[in-house]
């Protein structure tokens, strides 16, 4: 995904690549390979969640561990709700992208308009690339740093990427290391689903930002008497309404769970700092990851709202 983002890669292509890699849209080419790939992503995603739930059902002796378990599970449920929503609304996703492409073709016919779309695409590629690198490398970074910690402590505090149920013993070092690899591997299903959703939000936001600036430029140069401007304005309103209808389902679920996740991880971090004076990388990584969706949603919504009704487009 990261290597495929070049200077010539359009935001639409980036979004499609991300959605295909997440198992949300069928991959092009061999139907059998496409099905097997999607099934493997879905299996990782659901295996991760079932393992989390089974571990919670076992009960935690320590309150701090219990809070961490439920915080991780709440994060998983949020990602799962988005994944299921996107997977069940594939036609709506394709409709939104087709509409964006049609508007792009209509509104980028002159050099000045292409400048706005070019700026939006260049900035979008940079933001998506940076955020994608951070999210995609999370399991690898966790594995490397936690392994270094294990070696330093002589494997006294065995810890997986999340508190999950494992049906075998991890007493032996080799069994523990294989389990760490396994837990990191199945977490990839969650990672690619998480990544696909924020890329979709980013692409829509950056494209809408460019279109609204083009429309503003038209209003300033051609005046309000141009009928074409009103037609384009109407298209953008309809597109925003379609997008709002599409995301409204899982956003209700987000509102209920997202505020709880930073609180749970924050409490764990504060207790760890109080006890040892240090903070582990995975604790820091988790709270950053759970904050990102909220920040992205707010920034994307605010960007469109400011451009659409805050004075730039009137």
Automatic annotation (TrEMBL):
Q: Does the keyword Transmembrane helix apply?
A: yes
- Membrane-traversing stretches: 35-54, 127-149, 181-204
The protein's matches in InterPro entries, at most eight in alphabetical order, are given as: 7tm6_olfct_rcpt
Q: Which domain of life is it from?
A: Eukaryota
Q: Which UniProt keywords apply?
A: Membrane, Olfaction, Receptor, Sensory transduction, Transducer, Transmembrane, Transmembrane helix
What's the protein's topology in the membrane?
Multi-pass membrane protein
Pfam families for the chain? 7tm_6
Q: Provide the GO biological process annotations.
A: signal transduction
Report the subcellular localization. Answer: Membrane
One function term, GO molecular function aspect: odorant binding
* Signal peptide location: none
Protein's UniProt keywords contain Transmembrane: yes
Return the GO cellular component terms, semicolon-separated.
membrane
Q: What is this protein called?
A: Odorant receptor
Question: Which organism was this protein described from?
Answer: Rhynocoris fuscipes
Q: What is the lineage of its organism?
A: Eukaryota, Metazoa, Ecdysozoa, Arthropoda, Hexapoda
